[in-house]
Design goal:
The protein is an alpha+beta fold. It has 2 domains: about 80 residues, RRM (RNA recognition motif) domain (Alpha-Beta Plaits, 2-Layer Sandwich), CATH 3.30.70; about 50 residues, no CATH class. It is about 15% helix and about 30% strand. The chain has 3 helices and 8 strands; from the N terminus they run E-H-E-E-H-E-E-E-H-E-E. It has a 5-stranded antiparallel beta sheet with strand order 2-3-1-5-4. A 3-stranded antiparallel beta sheet has the order 6-8-7, covered by helices on one side. The longest helix has 12 residues. The chain is elongated, with a radius of gyration of 23 Å. The chain starts with about 35 loop residues before the first strand and ends in a 13-residue tail after the last strand.
């Protein structure tokens, strides 16, 4: 006899309001330039922590327009995510914000992503040659995973590829 009043196991339950976010479709046309930028205050002895968040938000809206996201970080810098290449160029030209001198830099990690690939042919190829081969596909770094065999580290055919974009490509070409 089956008791219909018992709840279903968690693996069988339907989730309410479940949405899947596809990052590649988040923007109408994803920016080609780095969209995560850091604004750093260059005025001596000052940071953006000393500026009112209301005043700062108004200055950001007036100079940059509507951004995807804005975060004031603990170190006093501002992390912004731009919506388009035009907006990225506009932000790059900013020299002053809310009366403070500003330097705009690309975020060192948010504009990149990493993916793992494995193929027997990779075991015999040096990392520099693989990097050169994958470069047209946006690869900036190749790291070979090593495995321990009989107590010694030996190179494997598994690679970690670093891409120059925040979202992994759907596929890459590994030769023919």
């Amino acid at each position: 006899m089956i008791n219909e009043n018992l709840p279903l196991p968690s693996s069988k339950r339907k989730r309410r309001n479940e949405t899947v976010v596809n990052l590649t479709n988040l923007f109408a046309e994803p920016p080609k330039n780095h969209r995560f930028l850091v604004l750093e205050c260059c005025s001596e002895g000052k940071t953006f922590k000393s500026v009112s968040s209301v005043r700062l938000a108004k200055a950001i809206d007036d100079t940059m327009g509507k951004l995807q996201s804005v975060v004031r970080q603990r170190d006093g810098t501002i992390l912004v995510e731009a919506r388009s290449d035009e907006q990225i160029e506009k932000i790059g030209r900013i020299k002053e914000l809310s009366g403070l001198q500003v330097e705009v830099k690309s975020h060192p990690t948010l504009n990149l992503c990493k993916g793992v690939v494995n193929h027997d042919d990779f075991a015999s190829e040096p990392e520099e040659e693989l990097k050169t081969f994958f470069q047209p596909q946006g690869v900036t770094e190749v790291y070979r995973i090593q495995r321990r065999v009989n107590g010694k580290l030996t190179p494997s055919s598994t690679l970690i590829l670093t891409f120059d974009r925040p979202v992994l490509p759907e596929r890459i070409s590994c030769g023919f």
